[in-house]
Write a structure and sequence with these properties.
With about 150 residues, this protein is α/β, with parallel strands linked by helices. It is about 25% helix and about 30% strand. The chain has one domain: 2,3-Dihydroxybiphenyl 1,2-Dioxygenase, domain 1, CATH 3.10.180.10. The chain has a 4-stranded mixed sheet with strand order 1-4-3-2, with helices on one face. Strands 5-8-7-6 form a 4-stranded mixed sheet, covered by helices on one side.
């Protein structure tokens, strides 16, 4: 088998105000601050390592394409966290996918999503609706990506 990546290591976001971004990721999303320095910070989002890095050229508006970062949430936490996000963030897209999702912007216009579900649940939804035209390469839902 050819060498392959083992997963996502970390995400670095360019931010225009490190303190404001730390506050957003801690208070709105519930991330845990792991380290901070004048030009950045590391936060934990579950098992994800999130880096905030000061960049005076950080964009002030969302990028026009669909690229975004989706964070997982438990079904029990989705409603209260979505309510908190909806009260404090700009929503950039309505949910049309399987499972609960809310699409929102962080203070620097990074497109984010809070999502209930896994790749397995997404593939199962396509198995149940073949009219979507999605080719699935896993034989069964028991072959987890989770």
């Amino acid at each position: 088998m050819a060498p392959a990546i083992t997963g996502l290591n970390h995400i670095t976001l360019a931010v225009s105000d490190v303190r404001r971004s730390i506050a957003f990721y801690e208070t709105v999303l519930g991330c845990t601050l792991a380290a901070e320095w004048p030009e950045g910070a590391y936060l934990e989002a579950g098992r994800l390592w999130l880096c905030l890095s000061y960049d005076m050229a950080a964009r002030k508006a969302p990028h026009p394409d669909y690229s975004h970062i989706a964070f997982s949430v438990t079904p029990e936490d989705f409603a209260p966290l979505s309510a908190r996000i909806g009260a404090q963030c700009e929503i950039w897209k309505a949910n049309t996918s399987e499972g609960g999702s809310i699409y929102f912007l962080d203070p620097d216009g990074h497109k984010l999503e809070l999502h209930i579900g896994t790749l397995t649940s997404r593939l199962d939804s396509y198995r149940n609706d073949p009219s979507k035209g999605v080719r699935i390469f896993r034989r069964s839902a028991t072959e987890h990506f989770d």
